[in-house]
## 1
Amino acid sequence: MARKPAAPLRAVVGVVCVLLAHTALAGGLLPEFTEQALRNPQTARAALQATQAERGKLAPQWRARERACFERYLVEACRAEVLGERRAASTELDGIDRRARATLRHEAAIEKSRKLAERLVRDTGSPVENPQSEAGLPVAGSSR
């Protein structure tokens, strides 16, 4: 009885393709948007625009590379390689988007709290005091 090594071999080839794609992208698509840089709201806004532009720029390249695969002998292996690289690029851009959106959400929450505090001061005529801190209860965020 003959063995069928095709399925395990395909899995290994797929993993190798993904690793090669990740290694090729190690320099990064948008290296200027590091995790530290994305903590700034202006940089986060710029990152969202840059990732959208980068996706628009990469889409035709991926389609062209996939079309080129149909001219090769091992069509499916080529397509798997292109798909692996595309996934790695998409994952990197998604990570930048996610960190940028988190920064903007955090900034919006701070602004909302500031406006609420200003309104309370304006309505009551005195600075807002935290009743929990006077009672000896922990203030939110102070135990972290």
Note: Residues 51 and 72 are 31 Å apart (CA to CA).
## 2
Amino acid sequence: MTVSLYVGDPDSGPPLGSVPAMLTARSRSDTVETYQLAERLYDRLVGSGTYLVLVFDDEVMPIAANFDIGEW
């Protein structure tokens, strides 16, 4: 598995209130496809109840979110 995490500048507000980040994961396994890895990561991040998660496809279109993103 290869994982890249890019973290932006924190939004104003309480300490550790909101920090934009982008996580990119690629499976290097012969038995686990990248989409399966992405589904597992999404389920665990959303399941923690701590993160707002927005998922994009390869063409940068949103395909899943655990919050209302409105019209895209």
Note: The first strand starts at residue 2 and ends at 7.
